[in-house]
Every structure is written in C-alpha cells, then in structure tokens.
Protein 1
Amino acid sequence: MIGALLYLRLTSLRNLVVYRVGRLRQPRYLIGAAATVAYFYFSFLRRLRFAGTGGNAMSAAIIALIVAGFCATMCAIALLTIAYAWISPSATPGLQFSEAEIAFLFPAPLSRRMLIHFRLLSTQLAILFTSVLTAVVFGRTQFVGGNALMRAAGLWVILSAFSLTLAGTNLAVARLREASEHFLLWRMAAVASIASYVFAVVWYASAFLKLGSSSAFFSEDGLGGLAPGLLASSPVRWLVLPYRIVFGPYFASGLYGFAQAAVPALGLLALLYYWVSSTEYRFEEGSIALAEKRAAMKATMLRGEAPKAGIFKPRPQPGPFPLSPTGPQEVAFLWKNLLSMRSSLLSRRTIVMAFSITIWMSFALGPLFSRRGGSYSTIIVVFCGIAACYTLLIGPQVARQDLRSDLPNADILKTFPIEGWRLALGELLAPAAVLSLVLWFLIIVCSFALDTGGSVEWLTAGVRLAAALCLAAAAPVFCVVLLIVPNLIMVLLPAWYQASRQRGGGIELMGQRLILGIAQLLVALFVAVPGVLFGSLIIFSLFVHIGLIPAIVLAAAVVLAILVGEAAVGLWAIGARFETFDPSMEIK
Amino acid sequence: MIEVEALAKRYGSFTAVGNLSFSVRPGEVLGLVGPNGAGKTSTLRCIAGIIPMNAGAVRIAGHDLASDPVAAKRELAFFPDEPRLFDYLTVRQHLAFVARIYGVAGHEAIAEPLLAELELADKADVLPVELSRGMKQKLVIACGLLHSPRAMFFDEPLTGLDPLGIRRMKDSIVRRAREGAAVVLSSHLLHLLEEVCTHVLILKKGEKVAGGTLAEVSAQFSNGEADVGLEEIFMRATGGSES
C-alpha cells in the first residue's frame, strides 16, 4: 500500500513538474513565472537578504517577543479549533480524499485502516512540501536559529501534530456520537476540560507576570528572556509541555539541540498517528461529502464567485421584479443576475462583513478625527469617500455576477439571438445597478454631511445639490465602465482570467494573477483619467465666468459624454470579441 | 431549412471539420455519426453559432449565420450533451428568462404543457442543484423547445435520461420533425438513429464518408446484402476504427 501511495504521489509529482516546465514554452506561462520570481525576489528574498544590515533592524529581544506572541496565537487557534470540533461536531466528518482517490480507492480491496494510512501519509507529504517551501522562502530569517533544513523539519512536526490532532479529534467525536449514549456528556466534559486547561494556563501565566522577579524581563535588555522565563516557570512549564515538545525542533539552535528535541516530538507524532489510524469510524460517507464540497467550492471559484464557507445550499428566490416576455433582452440578464446576486452576493455573510467594516472604520476614524479636532460631519465625509473608493476599486471584483460568472455557460449564451454588445450590456447591468445604489447612498449622505451652515461660503445648498445630482448621474455609467475592464480582459485573455480564478496552480499562474490584477487596476485608472481631467479643467476654468453650479453641470455633461463613449467602445469590444469567442478552444 | 456549405473548422493546425456540406429540409431528421474525434460536436457547435467556423456558410431558415446571426439563432435550438443551467434560477425562472430572450409572448401557456410532457411540473420551483442529471437535461430541452424552433441540434440527447425519458425524447424529436422542424442529431447510439432519423451523415476525421437517406447509405455499404443494420454500415464506412 505504501508502495502504491509513493508511486501515485511521486509519479504525479514528476508528471506535474514535467507538465509545468513544458508549458513554460508558452509565453504567458513564462511571463507569469518571471513575474512571480520577481515578486518573491523583491518582496521577500531581497529584503531578507539585507535585513540586519540597515539601521532599522529590530532588536533581537523584540523579535523574540513577536515570535513568542505568534506561537502563542497559533497554539490558541489550534486549541480553539479542537474545542470547536467538540462544541459543534460535524454530522458526518470525513478524511480529505480527492474525488479521484474516492473513485479508485474506496471500491478497491483496501481495509479502512489502510485508507486512513493512505490519507495520513498523503497529508504528511503535503505538509512536508509546504514546510520545505516555507523554510526556503523565509530561509534567511535567522532569529530562530538552526538552518533551513532543521526549520523545515521543525515546521513539519508542528503542522503534522496539529493536522493529526484535528483529524483524530474529529474521528473520535464522530465515533463517540456513533457508539456512546452519553455523547452530550462527553462533549460537555471535553469542552470543560479544554476551558479548565486554558484557565489554568492564563492563571499561572498572569501569576508569573505579577511576580517581582519577572520585572527584570520588562527592561529592554530582558525582554527577550520573558517568554523563556515564563515557559520555564512552574507549573506553566508542565501545562504547556505538549506545545514545547511540538515546537522544540523548530526552535532548536544547533544540530545536537535539534536531535534532542526531535526524539520526544517524533514520539508524540507517532502516538498521534497511532491514535488516528486506530480509530474505528466509518468515515467514507463524510469523506465523499467533503470531496463533493471541495469540488463544488472549486467550481464556484471557477465561475468567478467567492467560495462559500460550509455546505452552501442555495434556495429558490422570487424574481427581483416581474419579467415580461417581451421587451429589451438586456432586462432579462439584469433580472437573472440580480436573482443570482441575491442568492450569492447579498448573503448574511456579506451584510455582517459590511456591518463589521462600518463599525471598525467608525472606531478607527472617530478617535483620529476627534484628536485632530475634526467634526462628525468630517468623519462622515471621509468615511463616505473611503467607502466610495473601495466600491469603485473592489466593487467590480466582488460583484461579478456578469459575463464572468456566466463564462461556463458561454455555449448557451452564444446560441441566444442577441447581438454581442447587447448581451454584454445586459450582463453588466446587475452589478452596475448594485454598485450605483451603494454610490448613490454615499453621495446622499455626503451631501447632507457637507452642510457647513454657511461657514464655507461657496458650499451652498445649490452647489451641494448640483454636485450630488451630477455625481449620481455619472455613477452608473462609471460603474459600467469599470465593470467593462475585467469583463473585457476575460474575453480577450480567457486563459489568463481562468488562471486568476483558480487556487494554486504553480508560480506561473500566480504570476499571471499578479499581472492581471495590476493590469486591471491600471486600465481602470486609465479610463477614469480623461473624465477627471476634462471635468476639473472645465470647473476650474469656467466657474469664475459662469458660476460654480453651471460649471459643475457643464463639467458633468462632458464627463458623462466621455464615460458613455468609453462604455460604448468597451461594450462594442466585448460584444465583438464574444461573438468570435470559441469556448472549446479558449476556456482551457 | 438547414444548409451547410463547405464548412471547415480548424483548431490550430488540426482540422476538426473539413469541407463539409449537407442540408436538412423541414420534416427531416439527420443523424450525425462517426467515431470519437470525427468532428460531430464541432460541426454541431459551428452550425449552432457557438463556435466560429473557419470557412464555409451556414443558413438557418434562410438566414445566413455569419451575416445575420441574430435572425438565424432565433430559429434554432441547441441541446448540448452536458446540461448547462443557471445555478440560481428555478425551473420556471429558466423558462421565463428564455422566453424574454426569444420574445415568446404568453410563454406560460407553452411552458406548462412542456413541463408536464417532460415530467418537470412538480419541480417547477426548485433550483438546478436539486435536479438529477436527467431532469437537468429535460429542463434544457424545455428551454430549447419554448420558442418553437424550426431547426434543432441535439448533441447526444439521451445522455442521463431514464428509459421513459428516452422513449418520450424519441417521440418528441419525431413529432417536432413531423410538425416541420429540421433536426440534426449527433449520437453514438446507432439504434436510436435507426429509429428516429430519416437521413444519416457519417463523418470520419472531419470529413463526410457517406450521406443520404438510410436506404441510400445502406445501399452504398451493403455490398448487395439485405437487412444490413446501421451498426454494420457504420463499421464498414469508418473501417471500424477512429483512424
């Protein structure tokens, strides 16, 4: 069985490497790979290479404290994840097999335990790859001691221990649900134990920090010794023993230290492995559900939508408005995409996220402005400005219920009796409408918040009203123009676009995503420039002669004309390209 | 009704379809057969306006597909082998959407009997995710038939259908043809073609090997033998291999 696993993994890896290297002959992959290498070089390696040579290098004590804090956070997250597995156990937990593995291995003459071995060993290989990659990319961070190989091995121990513990917990919980009549009591006991453990660690750690002897740690020189001091104090030392064992190899400074730390760590891993592999739980059903969920998430991402957390099951919704069978065909696309948006974009998660961002910004901006003597109306205007910028820059990437989400249905769309540009317009209407509504709301709020009560002479109610109406008129067209950019890129470079929707895929696809993202931003800025330039020019050159309100209206008319022209050109380009678009060749 | 002249479709240097000509008149059902990679799907997708052809001309109900695609597409319906549906539209909403695209006034009066015929009436308000593959296929068929197309293209239409569905599908194709539609049907199921088709077109490596009525093609490859089935004709015409 191990031989079969190794054959599968090694052959797949070899073929993957051959395939990836081979496709570098295509310019787009070569350019993508070059972009990623450049990105990594300038973002990580170059900076790390020169770290410590500049004057801004952090002191070793601060770094040690940051590392300790980071590790403590990781441990807390791991513990929380384990606790969550007890608090809210999955109805059918499973091991993570791919759909192909399920198809080939589940009907094969393999025992359940062998399948668990297969899965666990596969996971270990994946973790080892991640660990080596991380150690190589961040290999120049010397503060933890040791060399890159030791750090890779150390990281593998940490990640494997967490992975095995989580898998074991899930299977144990499921086994208990299956076998025990007192499942709830078991869960309560487990959660109570975890809570008691956390309480004990926090209690004794606080006691240590309050001790007079620890005050020396809080000087700049002693800061680096704070975490080791805490971990050496009793009883924290014993309470965190499993964590110390797991983290031991990663923080070992020399070969001897590493060997010393590796023995108990590997022993612990072996114990965990034995625990998980000896679990007698029928995981097949859960594994199939998990594989289907992953496949659905992948398909969702390929459609250009955000992957849903948990098992997402859309529910039928009534149409956003009654759709008459006759009239402009574009309205049918608006209707369809609004329906889709209501189900996917305007979810509870989005609302919670928007609410959280609003609260966070209020808290962040409030003190900032109050410290500088700003009024609430200033805060609101700045808030609206930031929100508008985000809506214009991020909005077209989030609201993608347009041609991008319909790309898998290109076959069907192409049989529809509608001109390409009209189809493109119809597809863009729904996201443009939603983004426009957001902008209109912000414009209305701003126009009220900008009421200075006469302290700014030129900012009269008339000026505010004229500016608000002009901005409101330009907003939908500008949204359409911004939405045209990613849609045009998609039909012009479908392979690049598809690559940007997939997870992973190698450094060449990562580079393609980078280039595509930057290109979208640049093109969006480029199409905005003419309108902004001409609008500003007209207002500043004419307001003295014809008054501010007429100047604003005139500028808005010119800006609107420019935007409509850009939108028309963009829609024509998308339509023309879509009409010659070959889904069988280009979506690969 | 469907006229194809010197159609060619190339993928890079590979010619999927080359210099293919045929016509299908109202009431005729043309069976498109050939080994894997013979160019059947490429042909169907070209004449349905999904993928651009490299050469040739296609006319649907007198409308040239290249110069007047909108008018041509208004007259046709394409039924893919893999049902593609919109995730967030229920069965009924799919029909409403398609009705608007094709401008089918009073579509409810057409949709209800269609849903009943395809046994989708009790699923009218569910999303595609809750439909089996066969039901999705039926929904695609309902959407395609809603605007009463005069030219219909079926790519492996029986995939995923249950025996009753297969029977109804066959009856439906024959009935639509009798009502005046021109049908092109691509399938590997030769017995289906024998039952449903009036004409057959055998492709191999993108080129026409034989074409005509079943009797004509049979005569061409029967070598004087009586009662030679389409399967045997197919084997003789294609040499029994893809290459």
Note: Residues 78 and 153 of chain B are 5 Å apart (CA to CA).
Protein 2
Amino acid sequence: MTKSISRRSFQRWLGLGAAGALLAPLTRRLLAEAEGAAVAAPRFFVFTDGNGWGHQGMSRNAELLNTTIRSPTDWDVPNCLQALAPYRSELSIVRGLYNSHDGSQHGSGWATLSHMPKPAQGGPGGISIDRLVAQTLGAADPFSSIALGLSEFGRLDSPAECASADGEGQPFPAFNTPVRAFANIFGNGVPMADQGGAISLLQRDKSLLDAACAETERLEKTLVGFERQKFQQMVTSCRGLEGRLTSRISTLGTATTPTAPAIALDRTGLDPEVIRGHVDVAIQAFALGMTHVAHLSVFGMDAHNDGWGFLGIPGDAHEDLMHGTKPYTQGHTECVRLIADYKARELAYFWGKLKEIPEGNGTMADSTVLIWVNSGGGKHHDGHDYNPIVILGNAAGKLQAGKFIEYGIYQRSVSDVFLSVAQALGVQAQSFGAPEDSKGPIGELLA
Amino acid sequence: MRREIYFQVFVSVAALACSLGCQEELPTERNGGASAPGVASGEAPSNMPGVMAGTGGVSGGAPGVPGGSATCALPPQRYSRLTPEALESKTVSLFPNTSGIALRVLPYSPTPQVWSHETQALSVPQQFFDEWFRVTEDLAANVDRDPGIIDPCLRQSIGDDACVRSAMSAFLERAWERPASADELDGTMQFFAGEVAAAGGATALRQTVRKVLLSPFYLFRSEVGVAGADGQYALSPWEVAGALSYFLTGKGPDAELVQAAKGGQLGVVEVRSEAQRLLASAEASPGLVRFFDELLGLQRVSTANRPQVSDAVIQSLPEETHRFISAALWQKDGLLRTLLTGNFSMVTPELASYYGATAPQSGWAEVALPDYRRGILTQGSFLTAHPGITSRGVTIRNKLLCLELPPPPPNVNQDLTKSAGSLEAELGRKPNRAEVRAKHMSEASCAACHSQVDPMGYPLDMFDNAGAYRADVNGEALDLEGAIVGSGDVDGKVTGPAELTEKLAASGSVARCFAQQLYSFASARSVGPSDSCAVSALADGFAKSGGDIRQLIVSYVTSDAFLKRSPMQETP
C-alpha cells in the first residue's frame, strides 16, 4: 500500500551526495573541538513505547519495576533493566508520574510527548518535548531533530503510539523504515555525474527552493491563526531543506560516509533488525552531526498479531500482557519483562556506542540525555497516573544521575520531568504542556 | 473557539468499565468503533441524538434553503492540504509517466475520530517536504524527455518567451486548479528567466515546473473566497469547483466543471446542476465510498484469526460493499433505507457461497441474499471490521446515532489488579456467552457502558467474526434478542438483524445523524455547536425527502455552508 521512495532515486542519493551531506556538520564539530570548545553541545534522545509497560510494569503494585530502594540514591537496578546496569551511575528512574491527557483507551498518542489535550479536530494538541528541545539544540543543525519509528499497524498516529509534533495540528511524523530514514537524513537528492555538475545542480535546487519558500512566506503573511501556523510549518520545512543544500554546496568534495542499514528498502514493523536499523541511524546522525535531537518510537506491549514473536511471546498475548487475564505458558509478567528487557538492551547498545565516540575530553554520552517514556497505555491498559520515566545521562553535569524518585498519585506529571530535562539541556522554558499540570522542574533531578 | 467543539471521545471512558474485568473489550480506535466526529450528548440538550443546540451566528441560508432566511454560522476560511491520494491523482493527470515514482508521499492514517482529509490531519512537516522535493525531481524527468507535455510549442523552442508564458499560464491553471494571477505568472516567468541565464533553457523549464509543484497552491486547496459587503466570503467559482469535485469524486474538477469555473458560472443553480450531473453517474462513487468506508470503519477488515473463511473471500468483502453502495445509490432509489435494509448485494461466485446465495456464473452480479441479511450492517465487511457484539453496538451508537457513551460511574476503580476479579476468576472456568452477557448488563461498572451498546450488537450475533452465518457458538444457542438504546424514537426490543435494521432505517434520529455525518465529512472537519443550525436544516430536508442521499448532497452543496465562509480567526 505504502509506496516508498524509488530504488532508482535511493541509489542515486547514496552516491556522492551522501558524502557531501556530511562534511559540514562533521567539520563544524571537529573545528569546534579544535578550537577548544570546552563543552560539546548536549544531545537529546527520546525513546517512546506505545501502550506503556503493560499491566505489571506500571500499575501501582507493579512487579516489574519493583526493586530494593534503600534511599533515592541507593537502589538496585530493577530486573527488567539489567541491561542498563553497567550504566547504573548514569541511570535514574522517576516513577508515579501522571499524564491525564490520554484521550483514548490504548495510549496517550500525541499527548505522550506534548502533555496537551487532544484537540477536537484531532491531531496533536501542542509541541512535543523533542521538538521543543530541538528549537534550542538543533537550530544550527541540518536537521533540527529526527523522528524514527515503527508501528505494529503501520500507522503514524495510533493512540497506542507516540508521535512528535511541532504544535497544535502540526504532526511531525516519523520515518517508519530505517532505510528510508537513512536516505532522507544522509542522502542528497540530486544526480551527480561529476563534481562540477553536482555543484551546479545543487545551486539550481537552492535557487528553486528559495523561490518556493518565498512564495509560501508571502502566503503565510496574509493569514492568521491556525491557517498561518500551517504555512509557518511549511516555510520551516522548506527553509530547512534549503539550509541543508547550502551546507552541501559549501562542502562538496570531502566525505565521511555513513553505513546504510543492511535491510530491505521498505522493511518495517516490529522486527529486531528494523529497530536496530533505527538505532544505528540515530547513532550515526548524532555522530556525524546531522542533528542533536532524535526520537525513536517503538510499538509497545500490545502484542496483537504476533508482534513480539521474535522474543518467543505468543501471537495473541494481548489479553495477557495488557490485562493480565490469560495465563500463557511464560506468564504475563515474564512476557512483559522480556519486552522491557529487550528494549533496555537496545538502549544499552545505543548508549554503549555513544561511549565509544570520543568527544572533547570524554565521549559523546557525556553530553547526551536519553529518556525512555511510554504512552501510559491509556485508561484501559494501564493506570495513566503512574508512568515511569527512565533517564540515562547527566547532560554534562546539569542533571543529577543515579536517582530513584517515586511520587504519590497526582503529585507530579510527566511534563515536569520533561521540563527538568529540557532545562538541563539549556532550554529556557519555565513550563511545558498543559499549564494546569506543569508544576515546574523537579529539584531532585536538576544539579 | 476550538474548545467549543471539543467532544468527549467515548473510548476513554468506556474503557473504565472494561478495566474491571468485563469479558469483551470495548472497541478501541484500532479494533473498531471509536466515535466519528459527532455531537456530545452533553452539548445537545435534546432528546434526539445528533441534534445540536442552535447557536446563531452570521446570516446565511441554511442547507436546502438557498438564499433562505435561516441564520446559520458559516465554516471559517481555510486551506486544505490534499490527501496523499488526491495529490497522487492530480499529479498523475499532469504527467504522462509516473511509474516508479513514489507519488503517495508520507501516507497518513488518521484515527477514526478524524476523517482522512480533515485539514487538521494534514500539514507539511519536514519529512513530507523533503520527500515531495525529490518527487518533483523525478517528475521533472518527464519534462526533460518531452517539453511538449507542458505545451507542444516547447518542442520547437524553449527560448520563445511568448510560448513559455502561454505554456506556463496553462500549466499553472491545470496544476493549481485555478488561473494564476498576473503577478503569479510574472513571478514564474522571472524565475524562468533567471534559470535560463544561469543554466540554460532546458534546466530552466524543468526547475520552473518543479517550482509550480512545490508551491503551496499545488499542495493545498483554498477555500477563502472573496469578501462581500455582508462580511461573508463567497467561494470563487474555481474554489467551488474544487470543493465539489474533491468531495464527490476524491479528485480534481473534470473538464465540465473547469469550463463552468472558467465561465464564472457556479452559483447555486449551476452547482445544483453540476452536482446532479456528477451524482447521476458513478463518477461520484469514490468520494462517497470513502465516506462509508470511514464512517463504518470498513478499512479494518482483517483476515487475522478468521480461519473459517478464506482470505480471498474476506479480502473481497470491501469491494462487495463498495459495489453495493454504488448499486444502491445509482441503480436503485438512493435512499438511506435501501442501504440499511436492502436484501441484496453484489457478489462473486465465491461470495455467493459465503452468503448462501445463488451464485452468478462469473464475475460480479446482483443477487438476493438470505432474509437475515439486510443492508450494509449485515454485510461481511461491516461484520468483519467489527467482529464482536460490543464493537458492533458501539459503531451503531457512534456512527449511526451520533451518540457517545456516558461517563463511567464515579466509583469506578481503574486499578487493573481488579482484573483478578474477572468473571473467569470468579467462576474458576471460562464463562459461557450467557454468563458474560448477564455480567455486562447487570454489574454496574460494566453495565454503565455495555448496556448502551451491547443490546444493539446482540441481534447481529448470528454472524461470526468473519461475518459468516452461524446457528450456535460451540453448541451454545444464540440469543438474538436485543434492543435499540438511545435513539429517542425507535428504542425498544428488537430480535435479529432484520428487525434491527428495519427499525434503524425507520428512525428519524438515524437519518438526522446520517445528515450530520455527511456534513462533517463533506466539510472535512468535526462539527460543533456552531454547525447546529446548518446540520438541522440539512437533516430536516433529508427527512422530507424520505432519506434521499443524493438529494441530501445536493442540498448541502447548494447551501451557504458549502458556498461561503466566515473569516479565519486568530488563535485564542
């Protein structure tokens, strides 16, 4: 049904264009380091899973995250997060957060990352936290942020999934195949038979984009309200692409070539190679300076249609995983643990790779913050008032790490954690999400 | 303003009851039955579902009352981004060779509360723009191969300014589905001249064509109109042509509509004529078929967990319903009653076997169905898309009665650990259907929602999750006695599908809701209190026509609600 990019186009994008695309940000980063930049610009990685952590992950008597907590700083890593145990000193868990803007049975959907009510007209109710942070961290990047994802059902906005947004009614959809994401992030978009010809064609495309953007800007200025916002987003999209072309023109000729995911062009779905492909795209996008903000959304615990079969979980484990009503062979807690453990292992892989990339006097992980957020599962599958958020990293010392913080009902919202992390990353915001839920940053998290 | 038209989504509250261990999950936005844009009962102080309180507004004729004196608010001015399907259709019409080009950029799958073409659901994020930019590059290869596809004169010389100007003027009109203004054409020619100077004529032509395709006027359709002395904005003939065509056919205006727009002849009389012309043929089928698909959630037909029926048969069910709709609207009387109660369908030999009907020799043909198959709610597509009692009942309640579910009891415990107290746990064995039914209807926490929907699903219980007839379930007898709940006019006991559909077809509430749903779909947005006047007038006309769907459409497209706009508003 979904027609993807043509293979012809794709192969062409991976020609010289990919090389050219990468030099500017890489050069910028290397130059900054050479010039003695003391602290690398922070990075932000958001990992979301739809449908929460399942019944045993989030309810008030949750078994899954239960562990020995001797004090907020002296606690044992929960069983399902053992893959992250090597990073215990950088790991924090905040539990008992509410997000009342779920709007559906199966998850908060757009509200997961925006913490805003769903408008009657549908679509997102406000800007998502990754896009807000991108306005600060990604302003000078080829991509202010990237959104990657996959869905058991191939939908971009299922309520069980978590999507990014630029504001009310302005979705920021995810690339749902790693190869497609790779092509868009690292590709070029023009045929290049030779170097001189390539520059000439890029210049023509820049001229074209400038004219197209200007036309949209003229229209946008004649509008008001929501209509104006729609075209502001289009202008941003257009100027963003124009900026990337400009970078390519100025740096064509030297290359650092990223590695494309070694899977089929249109492969997507709940598939370990697809998930790993997305993770690798995000790592390379960070490493090569294409962006400082990435969001990866992976379907959650629903387990319809044999989604988690590769973990040995039965095809129709939905009732078991989400409701705890049908005892399967493995037992539902074990099923949920398997899924959470799998995701933790992927995040450990991601974090480990960042730790292998030198930056400044340390590694790229030093300046990065990762948050693992779930959709809350809605009122149907899980208590939307008891979400956990897992945090990795200390944002170059701006966040306290190694904390286990637990709140009582309706004490703190998901948006308060988002705000805390955003402030640690340098965002000058004093509130986030629905005003009635934003009680300010969490002091125990900020350094 | 937007808060005024905030409607509760029933699923978020309906779920509460289920969290207590009810045995059949209330349908979700994925597995069926979330509300379409509808009217919250709390906002409609009326005993008739779907009726909204009038809120007044600017002066304008109500639907079906062209130039009438009723006072109805008008929808605001707006730009609507074309759906991926519409964008593909328009682009294919402009270029001879689009094979291998991924025209359907960033397909969007909205939730069931949102029509797929709602303006709120479609924007131009970075990913879309990046992909579309590359698509324009691929499309421009057509121009490289043959500049004559833009205008034959370009085959002779791209350096002839008069030829280029004439060619671009015509191309802009086809691409933007309206003539370009003098300023717009001048700007296009200036860009072309700059590109000629920089890279030569051939490159200039291809880049100019791409500029047209990258324009907001290519990606969006305008409904902004021209200001009148009354503060209202009458849509231009071109805007009317586009609105009418995309509504009915799902694609841009045909040659006759274009001619009418060019002649500036698209007032009420001409629009009625054009609408009747389109409605007289299956040309209007794609748009209306999509309306029914999205209204009834027919896209959710699935072969999963239905081993009793072949995948091929299940996969053919949506087409059967599309053919049935076309037949009911264009070969029969076009009445809502026929859609809801027609004892026929269009089937292949395989589908005839599935239905137990007389098989045609080959291909698709109309056949009579068994007595218990009456209308669209008893067709395999609906029954497969909504496989359970509750999901069928919810869909009837939401989509045909425009009702949402009441909020859950205040003492509902949402803690899922309560699921340990489920019926299965209580009994120590799997409950039978009668026990589940009794629990849903008797236990307060379940019944708050299930009693509003399940009774409308019981009469359809003779159809399994693949829509196939069944006499019992594992030897347990079926109980087809149910009830219509909440209609306000046909409430009460019904037994079996024939009586259910007959009563629904006789309901004024169902007719009124249908008019509201069509209005919402046609205007590509959720309706709110400010639409109540227009919807009421439309529904009244629909009732007077005896439920004539084509007449309903004509009434709508000749109303001010279709032909005029109020000013766009600042964001609160």
Note: The longest helix of chain A spans residues 225-251.
